[in-house]
Each structure stands twice: as structure tokens, then as C-alpha cells.
Amino acid sequence: MLFGLFLSMYLITVVGNLLIILAVTSDPLLHTPMYFCLSNLSLADIGFTSTIVPKMLVDIQTHSRAISYAGCLTQMCFYIIFVCMDVMLLIVMAYDRFVAICRPLNYPLIMNPRLCVSLVLLSFFISFLDGHLHMWMALQMTDFKKLEIPNFFCDPSQILDLSCKDTRTNAIFKYVVATIYGFPTMFGILFSYYKIISSVLRIPSSGGKYKAFSTCGSHLSVLCLFFGTALGVYVGSAVSHSPRGSAVSSVMYTVVTPFLNPFMYSLRNRDLKIALSRWLKPRADIRR
Asked: What is the pLDDT of residues 43-67, one digit of tens each?
């Protein structure tokens, strides 16, 4: 039962994100900075869920949770890269909405193709650096072969807790990573939406306010879903030390969130729904 459920969710996640990528690349009307970032976010979501779910499905079928040393490090590294990539792209998209609403006349000049590509490449570089930084910390482990991880995948936070005998070193590393990656991320998103809300509230007509908010509604929904489940995972693991509770929280974050993202964007975005219908209609006609 679990195998069929997770396999269905994984396939829907991959197909849904692939449809978004194909719709954005095939429709010239969607060749804008926001949809360029969205297609990269969909690609990162495919990589993120593909890092976790296929191995979990194999474990369910074989009734084995063993993973090799190299496999665990690889899974942990790619997990960090894709999670960080998601976060960085969400920041870029928040900045894009900030410029579109607060600086509409300068939007084409500011969010030019060169800047968009540079921001995506910078996001990948930061994510790559973060992933290898975590892997380097895990390599300090002395006895990896006998390690038992209380989860269905190689969770970086749990591996670091088990790898560092010196709890002070582990705590310092976590605080440094949170300071470098976490606080600027939250500040950038909160500042962007503070300016967006301030600008929208100054619009006199209710119709204008609704139109302005509707342009960032999908992004705001995904932000709440992404950071809400992530916060739930870490708060839950801090309050309850139950392995079962930690695994359930991790499923919400690693499986359910990527599964819901395509629906959040496609159902709440009129342009994307039109582009998807245009792309799917000719293929339905060919079958006939």
C-alpha cells in the first residue's frame, strides 16, 4: 500500500513539474523572468524528490534500509544542493515580484535575461558549496559503517549529530550555516514582501489590489508550504525525539511538498493553465 502511494505521488510530482517546464519553454508568452525561475524551481523539485523517493521505494520493496557509505554521502550532498537551490530560487522569485510590483516601469530593465541567468547560476553555486560543506563535515566521522540513522534517508542534521563527537563543534557549524544561509534568506523574503504589501496597500481601488496580489499569490502559497513544513520538521524533531514522528515529518517535507507544488502553481496561475492547454491540445488532436 505504501509503495503504491509513494510511487503514485512521485510520478505525479515528476510529470507535473515536467509539464510546467515544457509549457514554459514552448510558449513564448511565458518567456519572462518569473516563469524562467519557475521552470528552474520545477527542475530542482524533480531532483530533490528523485534524491529521496526512488531509494525509499526500493527499501519498501526489499524490506531493507541499508545504504552504502558512498551512497549515503551522495544522497546527503544532493539533498542539500536541491533544498538550497529551492530556497535560493524562492528568494529570486520574491525579488522578481518585488521589482514587478514596486518598480513596474523599470522591471524590464532590472530583470533582464543576463541578470536572471546570473542569479540562477549564483543560486546553483551557493547550493553546490553548501552541499559539499555538509559532506566535508560528515567525512570527519570515524566509524561510519556501524552508524544507524533513525530516518528513511540520510538526513544531514541527523548525520551531523552522529558524526561529531564534539557537540560544541557541531553546534558552531550549525550556527554558522544558519547565519550564512538562513538569516539572509529569511530577511530577503520578508523584506521583499514587506515592500510588496506596503505598495499594494497604497493602491486606491480594490480591483487593483486584488490584481497586484494575484501576481504573487502562487509564490506566496509555495513559500508558506515550503517553509511551513520545513519549520514543522525541525520543531517537531526538537520537541519529540521519536524516530517515527521524525520520519512522518520528513515525509511531509520530502514527498508531500514537492507533490503539491505543481498544483499550487498550475491551479492558481491563469497564464500557465492556458499554456498547458495549448501544449496538450495538439497532442490530443494527433491521437485522434
From this structure: 999 999 999 899 888 888 888 777 8
Whether the CB-CB separation of 126 and 184 falls below 8 Å is answered with no
Q: Is 288 helix (H, G, I), strand (E, B) or coil?
A: coil
Question: Does the pLDDT of residue 150 top 60, yes or no?
Answer: yes
Interacting residues of 266 by C-beta distance below 8 A, sequence separation 6+: 16, 19, 20, 272, 273, 276
- Read off the pTM: 0.84
Residue 32 · residue 280 · CB < 8 Å: no
Sign of CA dihedral 24, 26, 28, 29: negative
Higher pLDDT: 238 or 179? It is: 179
How does DSSP assign 30-86, residue by residue?
Answer: G-SHHHHHHHHHHHHHHHHHHHHHHHHHHHHHHT-----HHHHHHHHHHHHHHHHHH
> Is the pLDDT reported for residue 240 higher than 60?
no
Q: Are 85 and 258 in contact (CB under 8 A)?
A: no
Contact 79, 135 (CB under 8 A): no
Contact 55, 67 (CB under 8 A): yes
pLDDT of residue 11: 93
d(CA 144, CA 155): 14
- Under 8 Å between Cβ of 49 and 10: yes
| Polymer length in residues for the chain | 288
H helices of 63-182, in order, are 69-102, 107-110, 113-138, 156-163, 167-177
Cell of 276: 498547458
Residue 250 in this model has a pLDDT that exceeds 80: no
State mean pLDDT over 206-224. Answer: 74
